[in-house]
Amino acid sequence: MNRIITIGREFGSGGRELGRRLAEALHIEYYDKQIIEELAKHTELSKKYFQEVTQGQPHHLFPIRIGRSFHYMKNHPLEQSHAVFQVQSGIMKEMAEKSDCVIIGRCAEFVLEDHAPFRIFTYANMESKVARCKEKGSEHEHFSDKEMQQHIKAVDAQRSKYYALYTSAVWGEKAHYDLLINTSGRSIKDIAKKLADTI
Amino acid sequence: MNRIITIGREFGSGGRELGRRLAEALHIEYYDKQIIEELAKHTELSKKYFQEVTQGQPHHLFPIRIGRSFHYMKNHPLEQSHAVFQVQSGIMKEMAEKSDCVIIGRCAEFVLEDHAPFRIFTYANMESKVARCKEKGSEHEHFSDKEMQQHIKAVDAQRSKYYALYTSAVWGEKAHYDLLINTSGRSIKDIAKKLADTI
Predict the structure, then answer these.
(1) What does the alpha-carbon distance between residue A18 and residue A15 come to, in Å, rounded to a whole number?
(2) Rg for chain B (alpha carbons), in Å?
C-alpha cells in the first residue's frame, strides 16, 4: 500500500507549505485543493496526468497553470457540490493507488480511510495566522489586521461546514487525526524537516 | 531558561510511559502526579530532593517508594483541594527552575506558562486504551472490557473536571498544546524515540 499523508489545516497555519515541503523532502507527489479541482474539471487532462505519474518518480510540481479557483458552497446548488465531491473523491483514490503522496484538505483522511493515511492537522493562534497570511503576500495582503482576522474566520468557517457536510464529523477534532501540530510562531521549514526525518 | 516538556494525556494513551522514555532519552528529570503529590505532602523530603537535583545530572528515577495515591475531588473539601493545588504548583515551579524536566499532568502547561514549556497531549481510541491498560497489568487488569471502558471514562472525566477547575479551560483542547499525538495502535517506545530525536 502506498504511503499517503493527508493534511487538514486552519487557514494561515502553514499546512499547505508544510505539505509541499514534506512532499519535496520525501520525494513523493503533492496535491492540494486547486490541483484536485483542476483535475476533476478536466477529465482528459487528469487521465493524461495519471498516465505520467509513475510510482517512485514524482513530478516536481503540478504542471497546470492554476486559474481562478472554483468555490463550493457558494453559487452552486447542493446537488452539484455533491457530484463534484464524488468526482474529486474518485480522483483522490486514483492518486492514492498510483503512488505515495501528500494530499492537502478535501476531507482526504476520510475519503482515503482504506489507505490508512498518516493524518496531520495544523493549527495556530490568530496572531500567528494573521502574520503568516501577510508574509505570504497573498491577494489579501492589503487587509488590515482586523480584516485579515475576519477573512481567516470566514475561510475556516467554510472549511468546517464543508467537512461537516461530507464527513458528518467535526473539522479539526483530534480523534480524526494522528498528529496535530500547533505552528504558532514556528518555522514551517523547520517543522517539515523534523517531520520528514521521522515519518 | 530550562527546557520543560509537559504531557497531558488521556488515561491509557501511554502519556506517562512516553514521558518517562523521553526523560530517559534526553537525560532530564521526570515528574508525574504521584511524585509531585509525595513531594507536596512532605516538605522536608522535597527540600532534600531539590537540594540533590543538580542541573544536567538527573536522578534516574524518583527514589521514594510510592504508596497509595492521594485522590483529589473525592472526600476532600474544595478549599483543601485548592490549597493542595497551590502547594503542588509551587513544587512544579521549583522543578522548572532547577533543571530541564518532563512533567506529566497536573495542569503543568498552565502552571509553568512563563517557562514556555513544550506542551504535548496524548490520546487514543477506546479500543487501544483498553488494550494498553490490560497489557500494563494494573490493579484493574481483571476488569472486563466493558468495566475497563467505564473506568477509563471515569478517570478521564475526573481529569477533565480537575483541569476545568484550575485552568478554566477545556482539557485536551488543541489550542493549549503544541503537539497532540494519537497513540492508537502505535508503540510508545517508537514515538518516544522519534520525539527525542526531534525535540
Answers:
(1) 5
(2) 16
Q: How far apart are CA A139 and CA A49, in angstroms?
A: 29
Strand partners, B123: B182
Give the minimum alpha-carbon distance from A25 to chain B in angstroms, rounded to a whole number: 16
Q: How far is B179 from chain A (nearest CA, A)?
A: 5
CB contact under 8 A, A182 and B177: yes
B194 touches chain A (CB under 8 A): yes
Q: Which residue in this structure is represented by grid cell 503537539?
A: B179
Pairing mode of beta strands A29-31, B4-9: unpaired
Compute φ and ψ for A19, nearest 5 degrees: -60, -45
State the pLDDT confidence band at A199, using cuts at 50, 70 and 90: confident
- CA–CA separation, B14 and B131 (whole Å): 11
User: Measured between CB atoms, does A172 come within 8 Å of chain B?
Assistant: yes
Question: Which residues of chain B are within 8 Å of residue A9 when distances are taken between CB atoms?
Answer: none
Q: How confident is the model at residue B141 (pLDDT cuts 50, 70, 90)?
A: confident
**pTM greater than the 0.80 cutoff:** yes
Sequence letter at residue B180: L
- DSSP string computed for A68-126: S---TTSSS-HHHHHHHHHHHHHHHHHHHHHS-EEEESTTHHHHTGGG--EEEEEE--H
Judged against a pLDDT cut of 90, whether residue B8 lies above it is answered with: yes
Residues 96-135 of B with CB under 8 A from A: 121, 123, 125
